[in-house]
Amino acid sequence: MTWWWTEECRYVRRGERSVKGKFHVKHQEHAPKDRPHAPFTSELSNDDPPPVSMGSTGRRQRGSRGSDVERDDGHRCRRLMLLGALLALLVLGGAAPASAHAALRSSDPADGTVLKTAPRALTLTFTESVGLLDGSFRVYDPDGHRLRTGEPGHADGRADTARVTLPGKLDEGTYAVAWRVVSADSHPISGAFTFSVGAPSPTSAPAATAPTEDAATRTLVDAARYTAYGGAALLIGAAVFLAVCRPPEEDPALRRPARIGWWLLLAATAALLLLRAPYETGEGPSAALDPGALARTVTTRPGWALLARLALLGAVAALARRTRALRTVGPVLAVALALTWASAEHAAAGPQVPVAMTAAVLHLLAMAVWLGGLVCLLTLTAPGRTLPRTYRPASPASPSPA
User: Fold this and answer.
1) Of 65, 93, 379, nearest to 245 (Cα)?
2) I need a labelling partner for 375 at 20 to 30 A (CA). Which of 135, 145, 238, 328 fits?
3) How far apart are CA 259 and CA 253, in angstroms?
């Protein structure tokens, strides 16, 4: 049996072809010891690559062919995917549970209290800082009528409190208070309690006085939030895959996940910006058409984060065709995009904000590199596609056509 040394550094039998369909035999003396030596014939055309120098061990010398660089790129790509998966598992497995939304710590007057004299104001204290709305307080008298109260504010300048002044004279009976605020992680919370002046009312307090949450608005906001995460994973993960793995051939299919992710993230961010006001107030989606509501949203921290995300997406679009510039500033844009989530959610509300925000950014980037890179790998290995040479595993030589 005769074996031939090909440019793919593999032995094939006489009459078989290498992957490229050509024999490029260099040195017959380096055949394996367990395989017989045989004379070689090879006709090299002008289009064929130059001969490959062989060392004393019969192996290709490092750096002697461009395929060595391609092989290194393939190993680097696999190491990147493994590192992304391990980082995601470490962050998911080792991170502490995310802090919950703000909770009501105490109220003045307390729930169910019977007071001898009417209070001048209502004060709520929460476990973390909260944002106030125009309708953060609704106070109902014993007959179920809503009282006119002052503007809500923070007590003594403390961000974890909410206070509202009451009318000067309150009749005897039980009063119901419904409240709604926005916690520091951008999620609205609400509740209700009662207090009595003089003596409790013979009838129970009005039911369902707390602000309710519109189901349609909540569904749309959740859908937009998860779509934004998916878009970020496709955009960042596909960009990292293209920049680090560097496929040897320009494949439009590999750029498609990044484009899809960009459009998904743009649409989801715009939807979140419009739905922010009705989501906080508990109103229906139609309230998003109010220009005043949008004007209030852009003055809040979540609104700033969403506007910054839109600006970053514009920068990505402007640099999309400038590959070299995008590779240079791409890591900065990816970190900045991750910060638009960390700065407006749980990470910005805890006691150790820098540590929490750093962990949140790493968590999001690890998720994006892992999932986005996985989509690119599935795209490369889709049925009917030819795997680029950098990622093509060594396979037995195919027989020569007759």
Assistant:
1) 379
2) 328
3) 10
**What SS3 state is found at 106?**
strand
* Angstrom distances, CA of residue 229 to CA of 36, 261, 337: 59, 9, 11
Reported confidence tier of residue 271, pLDDT bands at 50, 70, 90:
very high
Neighbour-count burial of 370, counting CB atoms closer than 10 A to its CB (0-12 exposed, 13-18 middle, 19+ buried)? buried
Q: What burial letters (b/e) apply to 159-195, b meaning 16+ CB within 10 Å?
A: ebbbbbebeeebeebbbbbbbbbbbbbbbbbebbbbb
Q: Which residue in 95, 169, 80, 93 sits closest to 358, CA to CA?
A: 95
399 preceded by a cis bond (ω within 30 of 0): no
Positive or negative: CA dihedral 349, 354, 358, 359? negative
User: What are the residues whose beta carbons fall under 8 Å from the beta carbon of 46, sequence distance 6 or more?
Assistant: none
pLDDT in tens, 173-225: 999 999 999 888 788 888 889 999 988 888 755 544 555 678 899 999 999 99
**Paired strand residues for 179:** 137, 191
pTM above 0.90, yes or no: no
Structure tokens at 390: 């950098």
CA geometry: angle at 233 spanning 232 and 237, to 5°?
115
